[in-house]
Amino acid sequence: MYRARVVKVDPLRPSDKAIEEAAGILRSGGLVAFPTETVYGLGADAFNSEAVLKVFKVKRRPLDNPLIVHVSSLDMLYQVAADISEQVVRALAIAWPGPLTVVLKRRAEVPAVVSGGLDTIAARCPAHPVALKLIEALGRPIAAPSANLAGRPSPTRAEHVIEDLGDGVDLIIDAEETFFGVESTVVDLVSPIPQILRPGPIGPEELEKVFGFRFSLTPYARGFSMYTGTPPSPGMKYRHYAPNKKLVLVEKGLCDTSTYLDFLINTLKTYSKELLALLATRETIEEVSRRLGTSIMYLTLGPRENLFEIARNLYSSLRNLDKLDSVSIAFSEGVEERGVGLAIMNRLRKASSERIVCEVG
Ligand code: TXA
Ligand code: MG
Hints:
Layout: E1 5-8, H1 16-27, E2 32-35, E3 40-45, H2 49-59, E4 68-70, H3 74-77, E5 81-82, H4 86-95, E6 100-106, E7 120-124, H5 129-138, E8 142-143, H6 158-165, E9 171-174, E10 185-188, E11 195-198, H7 204-211, E12 216-217, E13 246-251, H8 257-269, E14 276-281, H9 282-292, E15 297-302, H10 307-323, E16 329-333, H11 341-351, E17 354-357
Parallel strand pairs: 1-9, 2-9, 4-7, 6-10, 11-12, 13-16, 13-17, 14-15, 14-16
Antiparallel strand pairs: 2-3, 3-8, 4-8, 5-6, 6-7, 10-11
Helix pairs in contact: 1-5
Bound molecules: threonylcarbamoyladenylate and magnesium ion.
Magnesium ion (MG) binds next to loops.
């Protein structure tokens, strides 16, 4: 069976040979999966519409869900976007390279297929040596969605890319686990009201500091419900990050920790006849296993106070969940909605098939 070539590189000092090979494949219209600081991306030359179409096909992504274009400098942004204000340039000089994607007006030279036919374009400059060197070697922007099958959790390791897309990619650059583990923050800068379209590693407080104005955050961006009409970002219409198993998200609501733990444990007890899995913070797993024992499969997300570690472990935990064949229902703890916690909750709400909220009293 045909398998993609996998080349291992040092994440901080990738060899020129590997980068040149990858750039050559992109130049001739092929697809390369490469690491960024958030998740692995599935890249194509952004100005080659046939190659970009292949990305949609390999991912089985609906054609109306646009891709992010990756640039290696602010200068390169002008190849894809128009009408960029001074204020935005100043903010990007601070935020880039980094996990922030901006939606701006699209230049007509960029194939419309990249943007799913919209007249806007999403762009970011990734803070990863491999991604930056690859874009520089190609000398043009790379269009790249996350390198997973549509609807699956994004890949944080090369193995995840092989699992999902192995046959459809020409080359996979393996540079170990990605740093943030959740996708970039996406903000809309073309609508009259700037808004967060997808929460990510850069939280609302940091955005306000960098841009000097506030961004609105809708319930859709928090992952509460799926859009049915025409959403501000096509991604909001689609269920995402979903494991194959039934996943119940147990949110903390306004409860304190001890009330929440009692609520979670009582919920788990009502399913005592089934084999359960629990995705939770280290502290919660310690408490639940003390009270309910080892009849549950525990998957640790990280320490409760370290939201970045939880974000980094989230997608591989969701993938591991799917491998636990005997488990019939999985439960997940919710985390605080601050900073990257907003991104974690957005992904968990979209991944879960049911949501229960702890109630006080
Ligand atoms: O961290 C990331 O952003 C990763 C790495 C590879 O850079 N990429 C990524 O791409 O997550 P993707 O395609 O999986 O997600 C792009 C999101 C989608 O929700 C899409 O709907 C939205 O950005 N988007 C893209 N272009 C847009 C546009 N012109 N207007 C509104 N939303 C857009
Ligand atoms: Mg994606």
